Each structure stands twice: as structure tokens, then as C-alpha cells.
Amino acid sequence: MTGITHRVDVPREAVPTQESGGSNGQADGVLGALLGALGMSMAAALVVAVVAASGGIRSGGAATPAQSATTAGQQVTDAMPGMAMPGAAAGGAQTTAAQGAIAAAKPVTVKSIARAATAVPPAITRTSPATVSVTLQAQEVVAEIAPGQTYTYWTFNGAVPGPMLRVRVGDTVKIHLTNASGDAWPHSIDMHAVAGPGGGATASQTAPGASSDFSFKALTPGLFIYHCASAPIPEHIANGMYGMILVEPEGGLPKVDHEFYVMQGELYTNAPAGVAGQHEFSQAKMDAEQPDYVVMNGAMSALTGDNAMKAKVGDTARIYFGVGGFLPSSLHLIGGVFDKVYPEAGSVPNTNVQTTLVPAGGATIVETHFVEPGTYTLVDHSLPRAMDKGAMAQIVVSGTPDPAIYSGPTSGGGH
Length: 415
Ligand SMILES: [Cu+2]
Known about the structure:
The protein is mainly beta and 415 residues long. It folds into 2 domains: 12-53 and 107-248, Cupredoxins -  blue copper proteins (Immunoglobulin-like, Sandwich), CATH 2.60.40; 258-398, Sandwich (Immunoglobulin-like), CATH 2.60.40.420. It has helices at residues 29-37, 65-79, 233-238, 283-287, 383-387, and strands at 19-20, 50-51, 131-146, 149-156, 165-168, 172-179, 190-191, 211-217, 222-227, 242-248, 258-267, 277-279, 293-296, 309-312, 316-323, 329-334, 338-342, 350-353, 355-358, 363-369, 374-380, 392-398. The longest helix is centred in the first third of the chain and has 15 residues, at 65-79. Residues 1-99 have low confidence and may be disordered. Copper (II) ion binds next to loops.
């Protein structure tokens, strides 16, 4: 861990109460420029929402304490009818009185915190190194973890994870970081692909309203995490400040039909998953490594339903998967096998793997192909994280069934 610095010495509650949000993160202005630099078209226009919520972005956000308590209490009752009352049981964070006290949900400043799994820059066709310029912007946004459950995320470019970057080995990468946060926090980047002090963190400590620059040569191919490395580093990461950069080897990776971008992380808050209201970061939960939510791309079940990954029978798919949070992930595709895994995103692939372990601050590249239509679920096979806390994503495969390969109902539960 490197790049430890101190935050700008301004009290949290003394900052202005306006927050400039971004778009839903698929393509805001900054990301658009980034994608343009990487040769990817911009999918949507910049939308800026200005929310003048009382109490400021980091405060409790309720209009009045009395209103908050009433509202939150009602919401807790509605959301968790079977929950034990405070004091009724001896143990654990699940039944403490504090949970009924969370503030009302805040107005969101982005429609969705989740970066689309399809937000993958195109494969590089260059055969020689180049200079690639990237702009990242630290932004604080309010978004839903799940319906009615809001959180103030700290992001790169308005969504979680930060944008996937894609370069070629030998490229010179110029990183421009701006800090648009409405709070007192500096932000920075430690990129694991960087050979240099702090992975760039020592050069990129950036105060609110300021910007910074550093550059590095991408010497090593692989898939690498980047994350904020401003103090307190774990809180910045837990709030959503992580992403990945792919450094393609010479000649690139084998062609596949689909490439997806998925990152797992945790949210440590002052109430369990399912409790309506504005969830605030909990240092105690984080230090105890007891997340309330374990998410893929920022929110509970973010990559399911309409936002599921899609493929057809006969297609091949590659998933760039990273763990931005602090819990290793036992990555498994329910109903499938990984034909190829680059363990820990190293250069030597393994084959025919059911579940692969991805460390905190690490990544993997997995490939599979689809022989039967249906819905396939990507999970952390520490399954309570998937089933109860949100760590799942779906791949919906269309096509014609082959009863010689599989017969039986094609919907319903797996595991
Ligand atoms: Cu930060």
C-alpha cells in the first residue's frame, strides 16, 4: 500500500451543498473523451443533474431528525417484517437499534451506478506502441444500491467500476486525473500496471477542483486493477473507486464473440441489505470485513434482467473480472465451465475450470462458450454474498436447445 496522504483539511460538513452528478456512467463527457481516445463511440450525451439536497452530500441528508426517524422506521418495518426487534436477541449487528435510524433515501444524482458490462473498449489493432491519453474524473454521486436504498458513491467517471482502459504492451499511457468532488477529499490513482512509486499514487494526489498528470510505459501485459489511493484508502475503495486496465500482449488476445467487464466490490453501511433509506459508510463494518452488500458493478444484481449480458448459442465470451473490494471472489458460472482461465490475470492460461479464485486487488480473464440457451448466472460461490448481498450477474443466451446436450426445464433455480 502506497501513496498515503492526508485529506485536505476542510471539515466534511463545511462544503457546499450542491453536487454535480454525472450521467449514468455509460458515457459522460469525460468518459466520452476517454472512449474517443480509445476509439470507442460515445453512446449518450452528458447529463448533469444538480441536486441541492439539504445537509450536503456527506451528511445524513434527512430534512429533519424527527421526519427521518419516522420515515426510516416505517421503511424498516415494511422492508423486513420478520426482523427481530432491537434488544430481542443477544447477538450481532443484525438486530441492533441503530438500524432503524438510517435517514431517508436521498435523491439520486445518477440513474444507475452500474457501468454496463458491455463497456469494453475494442481490441487494439495497432502493431506498434503508441501514446494513449486517458482522462479520469473523481466524482461523488448518489445512486441506488437496490430500489429505495441509496448510497453516496465515490467514483471514477460517475459509475462503478471506473472505465475499463485498454492499451497495448509498450504503449506510453498518459493519465490526467481531475477531481470534481463536492467534498473535501483528495483523490488519486494507484494503477497496478504502473512500474513506479505508488503505481502513480504519489504523482496523482489531486485536491477538489484540481487536476494532475502522470505517465507510464505499459511494460507488462495483463489485466490490472486501478484504485484510488488517497487516505483513508480503504474507504475510498469501498465507496467505489476502482477499475481495470487491460494491457494487451503483442498480437492481442484471441478473438471472441463477446467481451464483458465485471468487477466485484463490497459496501459497508450502517444497515443491512434490504433496509430502505440512505446507507452511510461504516468504518466498523469494513474493519470487521462484514459487508452489507457484495456487488458486481456497483449495485445489487446490477447486471441482471434488462442489464444482463447477452449471447447466442455457439458464441464465445470473455469476461474481464476484477475484485475491487477486499474479499476474494470464488468466481463461478452457474451452468457453465470456463474453457480458459488466465489465473490472477497472468499470462499462462489454465483450461476447463469450474471456479476460480480472484484475490482482493486482483483480476482474472475467463472465457467460455455456450451450447444451450438459457440464463447463466455468474456468482461469487461464497453464495450468501450472491444470493443475499447481490454478488451475481446474468448471461442470457438465446438459441435453439439441443436435447442431446441438455434436456429438462430451462428456467428456475440453479444451485
Ligand atoms: Cu478517492
